[in-house]
Design a protein that fits this description.
alpha+beta, 8-stranded antiparallel β-sheet, 11 helices, 8 strands, globular
């Protein structure tokens, strides 16, 4: 039974990976049922039963998520190009769907995104993907001696629904200083739970590794350091938006059984590849639990 269930999940996971890899193409029921090797007469119901959303809605949400990231974080593509990539025949059709989902036009979102309805809109997508969340074992964890890294820090304090705006400012700041992710490592230091009981208590640091002197910039940018030392490291490949399950595994399962003790520095991650530069199933992040 366990082997059969794992096989079923693997087939469904192939479908999600295929969708992310081929968002520019025609993703109809015939092609997707073929990827899963399921009968096309039952696949739609199987998909909905597994993920809680229809195939059509999942594909639409995945395309709109990529489009919204392109609008918010990159000026390289125009709205028309983004609309075509999202599978819409005309910019007007894209604008109507975008406004219906997020309450803003694509142009307005590019200038000043309202992130609260954005988070709400993608709740079903996040829930669907969590259905096939991989489980971790101690074999997935390595202990690594980490070198200290000097970083520039932009703090986010307050409602996680506004994190997107902080990320935008952070990206703009590092672009202006030539700190590209390919040469300057990106870290997130988590100083609170992902969803604290009170949103105002949410706290995280956005960091970029750099030896450049950090000039005073009001309260916006600070100089700091990711300390060196021993760390338990868990590598995550694919769907790295929500790394809470990995962090919980390290704290709840791995640490008590390991005989190790946590060091006095928060758990953090290094992001090694980014959506939409790569498909979501190809994004990579490593979660670090500092040890004594």
């Amino acid at each position: 039974m366990k082997a059969a269930l794992q096989n079923y999940r693997d087939r469904m996971r192939r479908v999600l990976d295929h969708i992310d890899r081929h968002l520019d193409e025609d993703l109809d029921l015939d092609s997707l049922s073929g990827v899963a090797a399921f009968s096309k007469f039952h696949f739609h119901r199987q998909f909905t039963a597994t993920f809680g959303v229809s195939v059509h809605r999942y594909v639409q949400l995945a395309r709109l998520k990529r489009a919204s990231h392109q609008l918010a974080y990159s000026n390289a593509l125009g709205v028309t190009d983004i609309a075509m990539d999202a599978g819409y025949d005309t910019p007007d059709a894209f604008a109507r769907a975008f406004r219906q989902r997020f309450g803003q036009s694509p142009s307005s979102f590019r200038k000043s995104p309202d992130w609260e309805p954005w988070f709400a809109a993608f709740g079903p997508l996040d829930i669907a993907r969590s259905k096939l969340m991989r489980t971790f074992t101690s074999d997935d964890v390595t202990i690594r001696d980490v070198l200290p890294t000097k970083v520039a820090i932009m703090e986010h304090r307050g409602d996680p629904a506004t994190l997107g705006a902080t990320i935008q400012r952070f990206i703009a700041w590092r672009k202006a200083r030539g700190l590209h992710p390919s040469t300057s490592p990106t870290f997130n230091v988590w100083r609170s739970e992902r969803r604290p009981s009170t949103p105002a208590h949410y706290s995280t640091d956005l960091c970029v590794g750099t030896d450049q002197p950090i000039e005073a910039n009001g309260e916006e940018i600070k100089a700091g350091e990711i300390p060196g030392g021993r760390c338990a490291v868990l590598r995550i490949v694919g769907y790295t938006d929500n790394l809470e399950p990995a962090a919980l595994y390290l704290y709840r399962d791995w640490l008590p059984a390991s005989g190790e003790e946590a060091r006095d520095f928060p758990i953090y991650c290094q992001r090694l590849s980014f959506f939409p530069e790569v498909s979501e199933h190809e994004t990579v992040a490593e979660v670090f639990l500092p040890l004594k």
